[in-house]
Design a protein that fits this description.
Rossmann fold; globular; four-stranded parallel beta sheet; alpha/beta; 11 helices
């Protein structure tokens, strides 16, 4: 059964059956990653371009590994070493790449909506690897896969996203995806880092991290994204750490066994203490591994559509 859309631009409006299909397919590819030979010929003959206009480590490496595990031909594009530096537009860049007979484009861009724009001006299949502070669908999918792997389900769990909600593409994709899959979703942050009218998305809002911990089964802790902030949203990192950091002391005080997640990179001892990041509560490294399997699933399902 194919996905409803030929692109993966975001999780807003994605049917539950499509998310379920991606997660189930990822389970098969997760098994491939445990084999001595971690490669299948599924996308042999397909050419995929990784079009990254923004710095990335985990997402870029994860996509490239997924593509090579599926036997695709891979081309990596960096804006810093391209004609973009000479003033070439996104549209012209994409069309020049497309005319070389590529099949899929994985794109990360600083502008919200860039992936949608690209899907309208090229014939290639587009996968959004993060567009500004809008969406990051494959990160949310790998988060959901990790939750299901750890807890056996997503539906009915209390999941709180903690940190820089306003500037995070991970938060929005997680809210859309988790709500679709039946989870109870909350956010927790200083008031200055919570978007206006966010309650309309059907999420609970906490302004106190200890209350959020008491409510939650899972905390998905986000990085403070100083590079996307055009002004100060709180007095200092020290004050943020004092009032909102997820620490061992706070977890011990709650007397609960929570699952701790983080999309990376971690600002250790800012939003998350080092001992919690490396603790038995953490599934952060599992998220990274699962990301390869989930991206293999997305590439396979989109790349083999008839």
């Amino acid at each position: 059964m194919p996905l409803c859309n030929r692109h993966l631009l975001g999780l807003e409006g994605m049917p539950k059956d499509d998310i379920q299909l991606i997660l189930d397919t990822a389970t098969t590819f997760r098994e491939v990653l445990d084999r001595p030979i971690k490669k299948v010929p599924t996308l042999q003959g397909k050419t995929i371009v990784n079009l990254f206009f923004e710095s990335s480590t985990r997402t870029r490496i994860s996509f490239e590994l997924a593509e090579r595990r599926l036997s695709a031909d891979v081309v990596n594009f960096s804006a810093d070493a391209s004609s973009v530096k000479k003033g070439e537009t996104l549209k012209d860049t994409a069309r020049n790449i497309e005319v070389m007979k590529i099949d899929m484009i994985v794109m990360r861009h600083t502008a919200p909506g860039a992936a949608v724009f690209l899907s309208n001006v090229t014939g290639a299949i587009i996968i959004n690897a993060g567009d500004g502070s809008h969406e990051h669908p494959t990160q949310a999918l790998l988060d959901m896969y990790t939750i299901r792997e750890k807890h056996g389900r997503i539906e009915g769990l209390n999941i709180c996203i903690v940190g820089d909600i306003s500037h995070s593409r991970v938060a929005l994709s997680n809210i859309f995806g988790l709500k679709t899959m039946g989870a109870n979703v909350a956010i927790c942050a200083p008031k200055t880092l919570i978007p206006c009218e966010v309650e309309q998305l059907g999420v609970k809002v906490f302004y106190n991290i200890d209350e959020a911990i008491r409510w939650a089964d899972i905390l998905n802790v986000l990085r403070i994204q100083l590079e996307r902030q055009d002004r100060a949203f709180f007095p200092s990192l020290r004050e943020y750490r004092q009032h909102f950091a997820v620490t061992r002391e706070r977890l011990d005080k709650s007397k609960k066994t929570l699952t701790i997640m983080h999309p990376g990179p971690i600002n250790r001892d800012v939003e998350l203490s080092a001992d919690v990041a490396d603790s038995e509560h953490s599934v952060i490294l599992q998220q990274v591994l699962n990301g390869v399997a989930v991206r293999m699933a997305v590439l396979y399902l989109l790349g083999t559509r008839s």
